[in-house]
């Protein structure tokens, strides 16, 4: 059983943790949550079988720890069966008072992930791995997306590979060995679901109005784009939670701020932490020069790349041509973006789909240029070979957040040197992924041609699958973040070998091959790997990063003011 962290004994209770953001929370229903920043909300309100300790030690914070389970189990049945025993004292903040979280709640949670209205982008990890889940989800796809029909299907159909022999035991039977299955159970999609949620559409206003928490905090107020307020969950039992201390009384998130204003408020002591706002690059050298230890760079394996819309008919369908996609890769001045972000403390040039720190990351570059400054002449040559000697014109949306507008303009300038004219389309941070990029109609209609996106591994540790599978594989089911249904059978075969590899070295070699196979197709144009640089006030103590949230752990900081 995981023990309490030594730092927890030093804390003090009370106060309101004030957090500032630019855009709103994306999703509140843990089953639907997909972004790194929203994982901080999940950390405070929804527990899972497996989670992580918040820590400044990179090795400590990526090791899976038991959360709702009593321990991290070893598999049985030749690696195909995982059996979990639930902790005593774990409860829901149910409408009629505290009620125990039981084994059936975990199966219900995973059943919801493939509902026909709004599922989870993490479905790809579970659907073919948990025995019988593909059959369950195929049947669910035929159900009318209404509250009544979905509730009836969930209550009257089972996933054969999930067993609940008693209220305190959950058993998962897999179709194949998966050394990373334990990590998958740390994802928000694997959180248990109380029976009451079946009476509401996923993450609907009604769901939010009737929010039920299993963590130390629960939702008290949610005014979209303005404010979200969390208060103590009266049913949470601290003795049942080895990973969260719940020091502060309330957590108050205020939205609509720009980065400079937010930093000023924090430095003045009027706010404590940042939500989706990163420290502006212009401030970083000054804060470093003064030795400000409240400036923290968190390594998460995060990468940024241009996703290329091969389904777009714009520019005469030019992006379906490999040579055009290769030209885009050659054109980018990666060094300029690194400098714009604040230099090597913040970022580095990136050439593949796996970022530093991930098993499979290695030093290779299929589209090299001197000092990572881009090769516009090579790009123009490829465009001419593809039949576009006068260049092409493309649409590129971008998130109107932090310095992403400036980065978009830097990318625009890089492409212009190669004869690629870019129309920039600003999209609000709250809408960019949740409404714009994840709308398949925008992809097929050519609302965008190329789009800068970022990706952090979905879990900590050996997480190459969490980069490859949701973005670069397709089995007939559209995955939320594989915008173009990109697929390569050879890459899929290597990935399967990597997942089942018996040694770390073999897994790393195979994932490295996957990276090179994908990049030979050039479905994306990577340009940087990036640390998450955050800041906090003098009042915040015990600022220990939570791996899945890439920020200080709201549930473990305390306030000294």
Automatic annotation (TrEMBL):
Pfam families linked to this entry: SBP_bac_5
GO BP field: peptide transport
One cellular component (GO) term of this entry: ATP-binding cassette (ABC) transporter complex
Gene3D superfamilies from the UniProt entry: Dipeptide-binding Protein, Domain 3, Periplasmic binding protein-like II
Subcellular location: Periplasm
InterPro entries: Peptide/Ni-bd, SBP_5, SBP_5_dom
GO molecular function: peptide transmembrane transporter activity
Domain Solute-binding protein family per the UniProt entry, residue ranges: 64-460
UniProt xrefs under SUPFAM superfamilies: Periplasmic binding protein-like II
Family: Belongs to the bacterial solute-binding protein 5 family.
PANTHER family linked to this entry: ABC TRANSPORTER SUBSTRATE-BINDING PROTEIN, PERIPLASMIC BINDING COMPONENT OF ABC TRANSPORTER
Record-given protein name: Solute-binding protein family 5 domain-containing protein
Gene source species: Limimaricola cinnabarinus
